[in-house]
Design goal:
By secondary structure, this protein is an alpha/beta fold. It has 2 domains: about 5-265, Metallo-beta-lactamase domain (Metallo-beta-lactamase, Chain A, 4-Layer Sandwich), CATH 3.60.15.30; about 330-420, Serine Threonine Protein Phosphatase 5, Tetratricopeptide repeat. The protein is about 50% helix and about 15% strand. A 7-stranded mixed β-sheet has the order 1-2-3-4-5-6-7, covered by helices on one side. The longest helix has 27 residues, at about 250-275. It is elongated and about 80 Å long.
Length: about 425
């Protein structure tokens, strides 16, 4: 596979990211500059950048535990020097989980384990993962359809931390670390000023920014945009995303950073304007629209996260959890509300039948409400569960984001199983 040709097809939108993922599955090495390479194994595992210095290798991120050995093997085909320093761009396991393999290699060689450098809040994140391991396992299992998934904890924590900026000189190579909040509160991007090379971490991911996952902690759309502007001001000539292929050329790197910032600024600005007018969350959700021209860019397509989810996250950051509907301030138990509505409609079956009709006509949002009310009123009715499963299947067909499909599929599978019991 000619990766240059494939990149041009990705850039133009002619090739899907799945094609690129298939091309790098065995551990692809992209030369970035003299003594710098980036290793990819799949889109969903973070990229790893290796920098050769006179003191040893510097690695930016480590891949996840599953793909760490393959990633390290690809690095070793390029250079066999000891790993001197590892920089975590943030604390997600697809960027930190490979440290165990790196440490094991150092131990086997009788060499010192590498120093780990990261933002101060990476330590706090890793501690939080321990206290919420069960919940995170459930969420990840649902999101990636992996029942029984156990969220990995216990990754080695940073040896050296910083707050806003940190300059390192390792074996003659200067690296500048900058903190920003975006998908996480502990994120770092790395700038090599002499090379004009920028490793963005997950501030750039070749998709619409992951700023609104429905079942994850707070994300920071406005600060994400500000960090992209900070990167843009550096005028990088090479941009290494946290996920996806390396972007060469100052014009393209600047375009990606500028477009991502503009998109997030638009969502934040629209949401706050409506909030400042006293609108409810429902009014905000249906009043904000992402710029269609930006969403059409191949590196901003909402295939993973969804702009509507980001609007919810912006609301939650500035306005808290209350959505402006007084019935939601201290709501009745969901089964009780469902039973009352079913009684008013003439039975749960009537609600389910209406939900099915709405779904078939394409009104899946409204249909999902009625289907859930029907199922809540008669949870053991197999016929109603079958109609619920059909409604959720129609919702799945219309959903474009991976997150939305993943969580809808959890309940669609539940309804189908209940209909067959």
């Amino acid at each position: 596979m000619d990766h240059g040709t494939l990149f041009e097809r990705l850039w133009s939108g002619a090739a899907p990211m799945e094609e690129w993922t298939g091309s790098v599955a065995h551990g692809a090495v992209t030369p970035v500059a003299d003594n710098i390479v980036t290793v990819h194994t799949t889109y969903f595992c973070g990229s790893v950048t290796a920098i050769r210095t006179s003191a040893g290798l510097v690695l930016i991120d480590t891949a996840n535990a599953v793909l760490a050995a393959r990633t390290l093997a690809a690095v070793r085909r390029w250079d066999d020097s000891p790993v001197h320093t590892v920089i975590y761009t943030h604390g997600h396991v697809d960027h930190t989980g490979g440290i165990k393999v790196i440490d094991e290699e150092a131990d086997a060689r009788g060499a010192a384990r590498p120093r780990i450098v990261a933002h101060r809040d990476v330590r706090r994140r890793m501690e939080r993962y321990k206290t919420t391991q069960g919940f995170n396992g459930i969420v990840q299992g649902q999101q990636f359809n992996d029942p029984g998934y156990i969220y990995p904890v216990g990754q080695r924590q940073p040896d050296e931390v910083y707050d806003d900026t940190l300059a390192l000189t390792i074996g003659g190579e200067r690296l500048e670390l900058f903190h920003g909040r975006g998908e996480t509160d502990d994120a770092t991007f790395v700038w090599l000023p002499a090379r004009r090379v920028l490793a963005s971490g997950d501030f750039v991911i070749w998709m619409f920014p992951n700023a609104g996952n429905p079942r994850k902690v707070q994300r920071y759309a406005a600060e994400w945009a500000a960090t992209l502007r900070r990167m843009r001001a550096l005028r990088p000539e090479v941009l290494i995303p946290g996920h996806g292929p390396v972007i060469f050329g100052a014009a393209r790197a600047g375009q990606v950073l500028d477009d991502g910032a503009t998109l997030l600024e638009s969502l934040v600005g629209q949401t706050l304007a409506l909030m400042n007018r006293g609108c409810t969350l429902d009014e905000v959700l249906h009043g904000v629209s992402a710029p269609a021209g930006l969403l059409a860019k191949p590196y901003l397509r909402p295939k993973y996260d969804d702009p509507e989810f980001v609007v919810r996250a912006i609301w939650h950051l500035y306005g808290g959890w209350f959505d402006g509907n007084p019935a939601h301030l201290k709501p009745a138990p969901a089964p009780e509300l469902a039973a009352e509505l079913a009684a008013l409609a003439g039975g749960a079956e009537r609600l389910a039948e209406r939900a099915a009709a709405l779904a078939e006509s394409g009104r899946t949002r409204l249909a999902a409400h009625l289907a859930e009310f029907a199922a809540g009123a008669a949870p053991d009715d197999r016929a109603i569960q079958a109609m619920r499963a059909m409604v959720l299947e129609r919702c799945l067909e219309r959903e474009t984001s991976l997150m939305g499909r993943a969580f809808l599929a959890v309940y669609q599978r539940d309804a189908k199983a209940r209909s067959e019991d």
